[in-house]
Amino acid sequence: MSDFRVGEDDFEVDGAPVRLLSGALHYFRVHEEQWAHRLGMLRAMGLNCVETYVPWNLHEPRPGEVRDVAMVGRFLDAVRDAGMWAIVRPGPYVCAEWENGGLPHWVTGPLGRRIRTGDEEFLAAVERWFGALMPYVVERQVDRGGPVIMVQVENEYGSYGSDGRYLRALADLLAGLGVTAELFTADGPEDHMLSGGSVPGVLATVNFGSRARESFETLRRHRPKGPLMCMEFWCGWFDHWGAEPVVRRPADAARALAEILECGASVNLYMAHGGSNFAGWAGANRGGALHDGPLEPDVTSYDYDAPVDEFGRPTEKFWRFREVLAPYARGPLPDVPEQPPVLAAPASGLLSSFTAMGGVLEALGGPEGEFAVPPSFEELDVDRGLVRYAVTVPGPRGRYPLLARGLRDIAVVYVDGERAGVLTEEQPCLAEPVAGHARVELWVESLGRVNYGPLQGESKGVTGGLLHERQYLHGVRARGLRLDVFGAAAVAALPCGAPGGGLPGLYRGVVEVSGAGDAALELPGWTRGFVWVNGFCLGRYWSVGPQRSLYVPGPVLREGGNEVWVLETDRAPAKPLVRLR
Question: What Pfam families is this protein classified in (predicted)?
């Protein structure tokens, strides 16, 4: 067992100063069978520590329904086996470009703006969650022979709020649950962020992508003593659907990393390896200087332009970082691990079995109800997925505009069974007016809850009502379809027929593979939806780009037949083909 502590000027292990050279690697964005390889890649780059968030909503999708929190312990054991330290960031809010910033929809829906404050109901939910999570962290702390050296209090709170009592309550809660590892906060290098997000007596760190000296000078105004650390060195960035990909030049990133180390600081690369937003867990941002503008949903890939790419391969940035980090290592760096096998030969298959969306909803959807006004996704207990809203436009009446006020996020609309168009938050009114009597259906899809800024936690669905001309339409029937209901047995029991007409629905088929390994899945001609391979949800695809294929981890594929499901939510191609390469 080692004694790790925050010294007056440095981090110390057994009384000797140590530099933390850390990298972010999120266990939930990497297939578990690939953890060891990715950790080996980080070691070979010159890192001695790994940082991970813990997303609450992944592990508690419904109140009291806690799922596989032991995964956190298994990951920390893998970190120990790799000979590295661990930094754990349990939130309860994590941002991470993750759905709702990691907060469960069943918390943010009813509590609204009371989230991330000292509100008693919010803190009670956090206490129950931490009570389930923290034993897996506590028993793996460094003073018990484990890898955990630091635990974060909240996350970038100074960018959101100013409730110091809330932060103090979280710090006390962690200590009361047995956390003896060093507590810390992480905020942007601005006075209001550091003053709003720090806790007296708790180490403060800063997040930035450049200008290290200026950032640390700002930190020193608030904390004259203590180790310097950039907890998030943004060496890359994430991408949004419908936007150009963001790339940071390797030479520029390497210079910025060198500047951090020349300041005598420790560092955590965000991200060292990004991985993937499997199972539709990608979050979203709001544009504009105040983060309250148009929705910007995050793509499925979380490659992040990181030094270790989504496939686990070293990039040019990896080699440049390795050169920068090598002089700070204790001894020679390990060799770069052998790369995992890749798919030996391209493969393709037609998805010849089809179930229309109505049939999928009937078999797998939640309970249907009638409501005076459209209920939100939160009220229907839908975290990731769709809601079908059905309403009657009474008649006889003339042709008037149909408006979905406060639509979040996108809706395919049918009038008397015929596709009438697609509505969005920016274009919530049907192009063609609707005359009554008519039956209208809106299949509304969440594109990811906001994970950062003042609108984090906002509801999904038709949040402002359905209007025909200026008149609200009441008596709305609504039914939700969650992504996590798509299990093998449930899908096998669906009624099915031959696909035709490019209709939305669930398409199924088999792709024969020879030489299984890491692969990319392509969906030529498909519009928008979700994909499963052998029951493993790869995440969302969308023809707007910039992402054109989905990463398939090698452990998901098998020799011979591989079952593929595609849930198309808009328009499918006439030839429902998928390709692996």
Answer: BetaGal_ABD_1, BetaGal_gal-bd, Glyco_hydro_35
d(CA 102, CA 451): 8
What one-character-per-residue DSSP string does 303-330 give?
-TT-SB-TTS-B-HHHHHHHHHHGGGSS
User: What kind and span of H or E run contains 259?
Assistant: helix 250-262
Sequence-distant (≥ 6) Cβ neighbours of residue 214 within 8 angstroms: 189
pLDDT tops 90 at residue 547: yes
User: Domain 373-474 adopts which CATH fold?
Assistant: Jelly Rolls (2.60.120)
Two structure tokens written together for 425 = 């938050």
Q: Which residues participate in catalysis according to the annotation?
A: 156, 232
Burial of 370 (0-12, 13-18, 19+ CB in 10 A): exposed
pLDDT band of residue 500 (cuts 50, 70, 90) is confident
d(CA 25, CA 54) in angstroms, rounded, equals 11
**C-alpha torsion angle, residues 38, 268, 96, 555 (rounded to 10):** 0
93, 351, 353, 477 from 356: Cα distances, Å: 37, 14, 10, 19
For residue 196, report the phi and psi dihedrals to the nearest 5 degrees: -80, -25
Is residue 409 reached through a cis peptide bond, with omega within 30 degrees of 0 on the bond before it? yes
Determine the angle formed by the axes of helices 250-262 and 212-222, rounding to 10 degrees. 40
| Residue 396: Cβ-neighbour burial (10 angstroms; 0-12, 13-18, 19+) | exposed
- DSSP type of residue 100: G
The two domains 4-282+293-328 and 373-474 share their CATH topology (first three levels equal)? no
| pLDDT tens per residue, range 261-318 | 999 999 999 999 999 999 999 999 999 999 999 999 999 999 999 999 999 999 999 9
The top-level CATH class assigned to 347-356+485-580 is: mainly beta
Region 87-105: mean pLDDT is 98
**pTM higher than the cut 0.90:** yes
Q: pLDDT tens-digit profile of 35-65? A: 999 999 999 999 999 999 999 999 999 999 9
Domain boundaries, the chain: 4-282+293-328, 347-356+485-580, 373-474
How many angstroms separate the Cα of 575 from the Cα of each of 134, 143, 503? 50, 59, 12
Respond yes or no on whether the N-terminal peptide bond of residue 189 is cis (omega within 30° of 0): no
Q: How many CB atoms lie under 10 A from the CB of residue 455?
A: 16
What mean pLDDT value characterizes the chain? 97
Residue 255 CB contacts under 8 Å (≥ 6 apart), including other chains = none
Architecture of domain 4-282+293-328: Alpha-Beta Barrel (3.20)
Return the pLDDT at 453: 96
Average pLDDT over residues 414-427: 98
